[in-house]
Amino acid sequence: MDAQLFxxxxxxxxxxxxxxxxxxxxxxxxxxxxIYIPEFTKFLMYFENDVVQIxxxxxxxxxxxxxxxxxxxxxxQGKIKARFLEPKNFTASTLPDISTNFDFMxxxxxxxxxxxxxxLGYIGxxxxxxxxxxxxxxxxxxxxxxxxxxIAVSFGGSANAVNxxxxxxxxxxxxxxxxxxxxxxxxxxxxSYEEIIKNENHEEEMxxxxxxxxxxxxxxxxxxxxxxPHDALVVLGAYGHGLIRNIFFGSKMEKIQSTITNNLLxxxxxxxxxxx
Amino acid sequence: xxxxxxxxxxxxxxxxxxxxxxxxxxxxxxxxxxxxLAAVALNRSLIAMFEWLHHFRHYWWSFIMPAIGAALSxxxxxxxxxxxxxxxxxxxxxxxxxYGGLMRFRSSFSRLISSCLTxxxxxxxxxxxxxxxxxxxxxxxxxxxxxxxxxxxxTIVGCGAAxxxxxxxxxxxxxxxxxxxxxxxxxxxxxxxxxxxxxVAGTEISRILQGNQIAFSHRLFHIGHLxxxxxxxxxxxxxxxxxxxxxLLRSMHGVSKKAPFPIWVRAAAGGCAVGIIGIFLxxxxxxxxxxxxxxxEGAYTQGLGIVTLAVFxxxxxxxxxxxxxxxxxxxxxxxxxxxLAGLTYHRGLLLxxxxxPWVNEGCFALLGMAGLISGMLHAPLTGIFLIIEITGxxxxxxxxxxxxxxxxxxxxxxxxxxxxxxxxxxxGQLLRPGTDARVLxxxxxxxxxxxxxxxxxxxxxxxxxxxxxKKSHRNYFPVEDEKTGRFLGMIHLDDIRSYLFNPLMxxxxxxxxxxxxxxxxxxxxxxxxxxxxxxxxxxxxxxxxIANRKFLGMIxxxxxxxxxxxxxxxxxxx
Lengths: 276, 574
Known about the structure:
The complex is a heterodimer. Chain A is about 35% helix and about 25% strand. Chain A is an alpha/beta fold. Chain A has a ten-stranded mixed β-sheet, sandwiched between helices. A four-stranded mixed β-sheet of chain A has the order 4-3-7-6, covered by helices on one side. In chain A, β3 and β4 form a beta hairpin. Chain A starts with a strand and ends in a 9-residue tail after the last strand. The mean pLDDT of chain A is about 85. Chain B is mostly helical. Chain B has helices spanning about 1-10, 20-55, 65-80, 90-100, 105-120, 130-145, 150-170, 170-185, 190-210, 225-260, 265-280, 290-295, 305-325, 330-350, 360-375, 380-390, 395-415, 420-425, 435-440, 460-470, 495-500, 510-515, 530-540, 555-570; strands at about 455, 475-480, 485-490, 520-525, 540-545, 550-555. In chain B, strands 1-2-3 form a three-stranded mixed β-sheet. In chain B, α2 runs parallel beside α9 (about 190-210), α4 crosses α18 and α15 (about 360-375) packs parallel to α17 (about 395-415). Chain B starts with a helix and ends with a helix. The interface between A and B is medium-sized, with 28 and 32 residues.
């Protein structure tokens, strides 16, 4: 796999955990690591039909003199080589453009957006826009470094859930880790989900890679997520439903990320487009 | 739910997918209207702010008003919308050249607010560049909504810029010409039609909301032959003033960047300096349209010395405002400086040859405006059409052409690129369609990869290698490590010819011993211009492409030329 994972390094203990997670991911799937040590708190990512400005908090610029050293130490510990990305183009003098020609991107998980609530917070609009525009999946890491030993795909039957399933096959193939599929049945029968798999020509891969397919007929979605192993990489599709449905019923992506602390790999609607 | 989902994606509406040209024209109407509204909104806000702050201008502390405005403007851009300062036109040109006109949504309103704070409080800047950026960003985001491709999006960005300029000056042709000459840089029918429509829409919005007024009406000028000859001197003065403004703006920007203070403190310092200059020469404050009208009417009463001083003061004030972090454009300051330069020149002529019946000084003020605009932007047509439209007079056309053309030529000689493009050219980021840099930037190493190479291992015997040569049609063979798969070097048949014709070596030599390890390689994210430079310097026709220390394929000049030609044909519509 000649894949590349893009990681924005934060020179803090939280950033260390995130980089450790990226290193682990790269080693497992055989991807190479591209690290960006930001010099400014913002940068632009130009996608095919969108431009997203990433606004980082000031912690990303902590002790810039030690950032490279700390990142290299972690790479040495992980016995992995990485390339440090130097932006070549700037939209404005303090606004670098970062390439979007990657295969994965790592985004740290937010802790909480609301001071009145205790929780895991939200993915946030910026990461959501990356997920929505990018052809690459986004790795949202657990708050502390956590090795994953299996892969759990959340499959709800939508087109993006099929994308997530394909991504799960890809990760399972590269990492040689067992793959389980979790389906929260929403007014549909088991056969209808199997039909979707059949229509998408994934029956063979399901037989080959999937060790278990958990179907939940009862219970709330959040309750059923409890069955996902704590040390699984959870792969899910985003934007399976439209904005209006998300506003009224909430987003599955947000629900999952605010319920479990596992590493998440999120495939957006453009995942896989243009890939040969 | 399905209906609502379709409603969210106008790109899927069948009415818009009937014909691409019709689609562009329909979107141009929308974009021209929206950018026209943005321009009117800024214009009205500036008038309101001027009226509100006018009561405070006679206080001794009024010199800090531009400082407060510039600081608030910088804080708004830096902390709230997180954008850089400046007028934004280079950002629009950059996005058009490199990213098919993709712009952030926030740019559609950010510069309107920040420039309103800077100019309304007395900063020496103009509202035109901010509305250009706003209109362009509106166009870009509407194009995104309709899922237009890069080329269509670029046209719509041009429509936004044209609608904005047309609306703010009530000048549709100037808006159209500015957009094509400065923003897009290519005259093509496919661009001209939607941009013309957007200009009409923008102008019409302005006329509906603000009335069909000519910005700078004037009396009839009777231009003699001597006046036309004298225009050559005015063109030279305009060119000098343009170069001075360009250089001072850039040097102020450089000095400001080195100052160890936050951007808002720097902006405040610049604003404060402008406020102090404004105590003695109030003409430097704000966008300066009011004194401009007086000058064109020939009713500006100050003497030669004060007018000359005002030229330099306005140049300094504009550089302090924009160079130190204030927000706004150079269009209006150019008009003011140009007209002041015209007045200075006219009064100088009167002093030297008092008996000659020179045309009214308002005419020279107009010509000076065109000279400055043409010189600063290297856009003579924009200068000519803008002055004709904003003055509503055609009688000055001949001297106007002379001044614009000479000023542009002289400025081009001294400063080879315009103020808007200078920074982009220096960074190699100006990529106009059909140019070498643009064609190369639109190609990537990935799409030129040739993957038909046979990879060999370092421990392979020469005898085995000879069997491989028989199957291959290439002269190059990448060598990789057996265990790790890492790229180690290359074997070129020319380099090992002596071994190939010596059968004794067949079982004695392994490829690791005869491969070339000092190989120049290419990485996936390398710029093709850099790759070509490497090939030329090292006299190579092909190079290996490496990622993650692994061989991916070869890149060759022949394939590059093929793709280059195809891309050039696409960009030039051949």
